[in-house]
Amino acid sequence: MAFPSILHIDSGKTFRGGQRQLLLLAERLQAMDIKQVIACPSGSELIRRIEGIPTIGLSTSSLSRKLFRRPLREAIGDHGINIIHAHDSESHSLGILLKKKFPESKLMVTRRVIFPPSGPLSRRLKYRKYVDQYIAISRAVAESLIESGVDERKIAVIYSALDIDKIQQTERDEAIRSELPDNYRFLIVSAGALTAEKDFATAIKAVKAVSQKIDGVGLVILGEGPEISGLEEMISREKLDNIKLLGHREPMAPIFKACDLFIMTSISEGLNSSAIEAAACGLPLVVSNVGGLPEIAEKEYNGILCGAGHPEEFAEAIRALIDNDKTRIRMGENSVSKSRQFNIDQSAQKTAELYNRILAEQT
Questions:
Q1: CATH code of the domain covering residue 49
Q2: pLDDT confidence of residue 121
Q3: pLDDT score, position 115
Q4: Nearest to 26 by CA among 41, 42, 4
C-alpha cells in the first residue's frame, strides 16, 4: 500500500479556527513522519507559523488561485502527492480542478459549517461527484452533508481539536480583571470572530439584563471582525462599562482561566474551538442550541443550552449559575473531563488512519 503524501490547501487570509486546526493537524502529522505540503495565501498568518513543512504561497486573489494552478500541479508531481486535502469551500473547488488533472489522487474535504451547499448543480457536482472522503468536524456537520445528498459512507466525523494538555497546564491571567473599571466578582468571557453569525449582540443584551439584577457582573469579548463598530456603538449607547471588547488575544487560555463562565451566542456553528478551549480551562458553558455546540456543552452536565437570538434565555442561565456555586463548580469540573474528547493527538491519529484507508481503497 502507498504511504500518504498530502497536499493541504487552505484559502483563508486570516488566522481563525480553520487555520488553527490545520496547523495543529500538520504539526502532529509531521511528528508521525507523514509527508505534507501546505498551500495557503502568501503573507498569511498561517504560512508565517508553519515550520519544517514545505509550503506554497498562493495568490491572495480567489480568481488568480483558480486560474494559475501551476505551483499546485508541480507540487503534486514533485512530492508524489496522492491525497489532496481541502480545508475550506474555495479549496474544495481548487481540489476538484486538481482532481480532474490528477484523477489517481484522492480528494478529501474537511467541512466545518452546518449550512447546506447552495444550488442543485453545486450539490450534484461539487459535493457528490469528485470527493472521495469528507471529514465532518461534528455530528451536526455530518448530518447537514447527508441531508444534502452526500453518501453517508463517504463521511467521517473527526472533531476539531486542540492541545488540551497544554491548555490545562496554562496559568491564569488575573490581570485581565484590571481592564474593567471595577474588580468584578463574576466575570463572563466570550471569544470568536466578530461576525454576524456569532451574534455577540445577544451576549451583550444578556449580560446587561443580568447586571440590572445582580451587581459585580462583567463580560469580556475576545476577537476582531466586521461587526466591531456596531458592537462598540451598542456598548457606548447603553453605557455598559462592565462590558469590554478586548480585540484579538493569544493565547486565550490564561484569560479564560481568570473568568467564571463562558458564553457563546452563535446563530450557526459547525463546532467551535473557543468553546472547546473554555471547557479545557474548566469553565461551565452557556451556549446556543445550534449546530455542533451541544456536542461540546452537554446539557446539564457541563453546560446550559439556550435558544439562539434569545438574550432572556441566556440571562436566565447566567443568573442560575451565579446563584448556585455548587452547580457552577460541578459543571466546570465536568467541562475539563468533556474537553478530553477534543484532543488534537486523537484527531490527528484518526485523520492519519483515514488517509491510509482511502489509499487502500484504490488498490
A1: 3.40.50.2000
A2: 64
A3: 85
A4: 4
Cell 473568568 sits on residue: 259
- What is the rounded CA–CA span in Å between residue 143 and residue 138? 9
Give the separation between CA 47 and CA 50, rounded to whole angstroms: 5
Tell me, yes or no, whether 120 and 241 share the same domain. no
Distance CA 326, CA 320 (A): 11
Domain holding 126, by residue range, is 5-161+343-360
Does 147 share its domain with 132?
A: yes
Contact 69, 98 (CB under 8 A): yes
Instruction: Answer for the pair 204, 237: CB distance below 8 angstroms, yes or no.
Output: no
User: CB neighbours (10 Å) of residue 250?
Assistant: 9
- Measure the CA angle with vertex 14, ends 9 and 17; round to 5°: 75
Q: 205 and 351, same structural domain?
A: no
What is the model's pTM? 0.94
Q: 338 with 22: CB under 8 angstroms?
A: no
| Structural domains of the chain, count | 2
Spatial CA neighbour of 192 closest among 127, 270, 132: 270
Mean pLDDT by 10 residues, the chain (363 residues): 93 94 98 98 97 96 87 96 97 95 97 82 74 98 93 97 96 80 85 97 98 95 97 97 94 96 98 98 98 97 98 98 97 98 98 97 65
